[in-house]
Amino acid sequence: MSTTPAPPSPGPRHPAEPGGDPRRAGDLLVRFGGGVFALGAVATLITFVPLFLGTEPFPPPAYFLSMLMGAGFALAGAGFLRSLAAQRREVRRQAADA
Fold first, then answer.
1. Where in the sequence is the domain holding 78, given as residue range(s)?
2. Does residue 19 belong to any structural domain of this protein?
3. 70, 40 Cβ separation under 8 angstroms
4. Which residues lie below 8 Å from residue 56, measured CB to CB, with a gap of 6+?
5. In a domain, 78, yes or no
6. In this predicted model, what pLDDT tens digit does every residue of 34-62 receive, in sequence order?
7. Is residue 71 part of a domain?
8. What is the pLDDT of residue 1?
9. 9 domain residue, yes or no
10. Domain count of the chain?
11. For residues 21 and 63, what is the distance between their CA atoms, to the nearest angstrom?
12. Is the four-CA dihedral 33, 34, 35, 37 of positive or negative sign?
């Protein structure tokens, strides 16, 4: 039984190609921003619970956690803009090579 070696890899592939690297510039910021946004959303829901139950409100630091929604949105937006800039650079590079 003979096995033939796999052909050498041509190098990194474009993310849109099958088997390409799915990571792009800004993806990590978008994912991290989404997580921070979700954490802030949960904190916001939790801080509203005492208002509906008529109990004593949470201390101010709990409300500061709600601000994570905005911070997460800003991080995700920065990741989006970074991804957009990287795609524009790639298109310009491909246009210059053609």
1. 27-97
2. no
3. yes
4. 50
5. yes
6. 999 999 999 999 998 888 888 898 888 88
7. yes
8. 58
9. no
10. 1
11. 40
12. positive
Spans of the chain, pLDDT less than 70: 1-2, 4-23
Distances (CA, A) of 47 to 1, 55, 62, 75, 80: 67, 11, 7, 23, 29
Q: How many residues does the chain have?
A: 98
Handedness of CA 25, 27, 33, 35 (dihedral sign): negative
Place of tokens 């997460």: 72
CA atoms within 13 A on the CB side of 73: 7
C-beta separation of 35 from 72 below 8 A: yes
Whole-number pLDDT of residue 32: 95
What are 54's two structure tokens?
């008529």
Gap between the Cα atoms of 45 and 78, Å rounded: 25
Rounded-to-integer distance, Cα 33 and Cα 83, Å: 14
